[in-house]
Specification:
Layout (H helix, E strand, L loop, with lengths): L1 E6 L3 H4 L5 H8 L4 E6 L12 E3 L7 E3 L1 H14 L4 E11 L2 H7 L4 E6 L7 H6 L3 E4 L9 H12 L32 E2 L2 E2 L9 H19 L1 H5 L1
Parallel strand pairs: 1-2, 1-6, 5-6, 5-7
Antiparallel strand pairs: 3-4, 8-9
C-alpha cells in the first residue's frame, strides 16, 4: 500500500510515522508513506499557499491552485482510490472505515490548516472527508498520522500476530476485554482464575462476556449500532 500526504507542516508527521509499527511496515515494504510539502506547488517565489477568505472573517484559507496542482501531479503517477481530506466536519472515523481503507492500494491524504481549504477542492477532488473527533486541532497532520497508523497496522505482515488486530476494540462493535500479565498476584490484586485454567473455550466465552459487559457500561451507543 502507498499513502501520500500533502501538508504545509510535513515535519509534524516525521516522528509519528517513523517509529513502532509504522517503521516496521515500511521496513518490510508493506507500506510506503510519502509526505509532500505543499509549498512545492506555491503560487509565487515566497512560498504562498494561503490567502484571505472572500467575504471577510478571521483566518486564512489554503488556496485552490497549489492543492489542485499537487493532487493532479501526484495522481498522474497513478490514480488514487481515495482522496481524503482530514477535517472536523467530516465523517467521524470508525474502525469499519479503517478496515475498508486498509484494502486499498493507493490513498492521498490532505491535511487542512488555518481556516481550512478552498471548498472547490472539496467539491472537485476530494472523495472522502474524515474527522478524528468532535474537536478542532491546529491542522490535519495529527489526524493524518492517526489514520495512517490505524490503516497500516491492519496490513498483513505488520503485526507479529495478525489475529491480534481482530480482537481489538471496535472490530465487532464491542470494546476489548480486560487483559493481564505476570505476576499472577500483585499487591493482593489477582488475575481472574478463568485465565489460568487452560480451558481456551471457557476463556473465549469469558472474554466475550467481558467485552459485552464493558461495552454496555462504557459505550452503550455501540450496542445500539
Amino acid at each position: 500500500m502507498q499513502i501520500d500526504i500533502i501538508s504545509v507542516l510535513p515535519e509534524l508527521l516525521e516522528s509519528p510515522l517513523q517509529h513502532s509499527m509504522m517503521k516496521r511496515a515500511q521496513e518490510k515494504g508493506l507500506l510506503t508513506i510519502r509526505i509532500h510539502h505543499l509549498r512545492k506547488w506555491a503560487v509565487n517565489e515566497y512560498g504562498q499557499v494561503d490567502d484571505y477568505q472572500y467575504g471577510g472573517g478571521a483566518g486564512m484559507v489554503m488556496m485552490c491552485e497549489p492543492l489542485a496542482k499537487a493532487i493532479e501531479e501526484l495522481s498522474a503517477e497513478a490514480p488514487f482510490e481515495e482522496i481524503i481530506y482530514l477535517t472536523p466536519d467530516g465523517e467521524r472515523l470508525q474502525q469499519k472505515t479503517v478496515n475498508s481503507l486498509s484494502l486499498k492500494k493507493r490513498l492521498l491524504l490532505i491535511c487542512g490548516h488555518y481556516k481550512g481549504i478552498d471548498d472547490r477542492i472539496r467539491q472537485h477532488f476530494v472523495t472522502k472527508e474524515i474527522s478524528v473527533g468532535d474537536y478542532v486541532l491546529s491542522g490535519g497532520e495529527m489526524p493524518a498520522a492517526i489514520l495512517t497508523d490505524a490503516i497500516g497496522r491492519l496490513l498483513p505482515g505488520v503485526l507479529n500476530d495478525e489475529t491480534s488486530a481482530l480482537t481489538d476494540s471496535f472490530q465487532d462493535n464491542l470494546l476489548a476485554p480486560p487483559v493481564y500479565t505476570r505476576p499472577v498476584d500483585f499487591r493482593g490484586w489477582k488475575v481472574p482464575d478463568i485465565l489460568m485454567s487452560g480451558d481456551h473455550k471457557k476463556i473465549d466465552e469469558w472474554r466475550h462476556e467481558q467485552s459485552i459487559e464493558r461495552t454496555q457500561t462504557r459505550r452503550p451507543d455501540l450496542m445500539d449500532e
